[in-house]
Amino acid sequence: MNERFQTLVYGTAIALMIGWVFYIGRNVFVPIMFSVFVVYVILGLARLIGRVPLLGPALPQLVISILSVLIIALGLAMVVYTILANKDSVIAMAPRYQESLLAAVQRVAVLMRVEAEPTWTTLRRDLLSQVSLQRMAASALASVSSLFATVIVVALYACFLLVERTHLDVKILAIARSPEQARRIKQVIADINARVGAYLALKTFLGVLLGALSYVIMRFAGLEFAGFWAVMIALLNYVPYIGSFLSVVLPGLMAVAQFGSAGEAIQIMMSLAVVQFVIGNFLDPYVMGNSLNLSPFAILVSLAVWVALWGVPGAFLAVPITAMMTIIFSEFPGTRPIAVLLSQNGKP
């Protein structure tokens, strides 16, 4: 009993120290993990291209890899361009949205029979202290300006990881104490590559599909910055549970600010919710299956933990990191119970 308690104490202390290192070094670790994320998407996409009937078997592996890299690079470039291209327009139009929101608040006040219709002055004084949508938009989007530099760093890391990948087997053989240990390490890495790579590649495909359908809905409804919101919806698809909610609510708030009434906003939100429901409950399970074998509760807990450590980037990385940890934990007797708890069916 004393030995087990001692092991538990040591394990908890080590976990807290690792968490502390991840927290203070988040500016270093986050780009590295995103680069691993990108490499997995590239390799997963290459495998999917290779399985395309007629086209896949006819293409050399080098051509498939180059094609996969070009597709991902084009996608990242489009995401960055869309965000940066809309930044100035959002800031410039914020005062008009502010007036639309004020008009909507005043109509609600009339319906609720509030004696004095609120103005921004009274709202600032009574509710928000200091509110300016233009200032808030400028502050929120100012950090987006550094997005381009971050993407460049991630792209560089990803390129070096792809190059280093060719020498991985030699390094494993040099590190391992025996051929059996080297075989075991390779098996763990192959398992991680297969499960996490397939998850990220398929999740990327579903995100693109979700963003495209949402763009059609928002464009048809006349919502401004439909392309920007479509990109955001595609990215939020990587965030479990909360991402679907935000993908409906945020464009709805934009619709209220633009149209000044709840009718158009409700129509847009209902249409987006239907798309989310169909893809999330029918297409997603059919395509993804149970590829990661993670408990829904474990996903929620991991989401909370990684958001606390790394903020918004942690929300995007929570599921892949937890899947990697589950596979690694399952290989050691001391940590296998943790892997069993994290898995959905008890068989990590």
From TrEMBL:
Signal peptide: none annotated. The keyword Chaperone does not apply. It is a multi-pass membrane protein. The keyword Transmembrane applies. It is found in: Membrane. Its main location: membrane. It comes from the Bacteria. Coiled coil: none annotated. The chain crosses the membrane at residues 7-23, 29-50, 62-84, 136-163, 196-217, 229-253, 265-283, 303-329. Keywords: Membrane, Transmembrane, Transmembrane helix. Belongs to the autoinducer-2 exporter (AI-2E) (TC 2.A.86) family. This is AI-2E family transporter. It comes from Variovorax ginsengisoli.
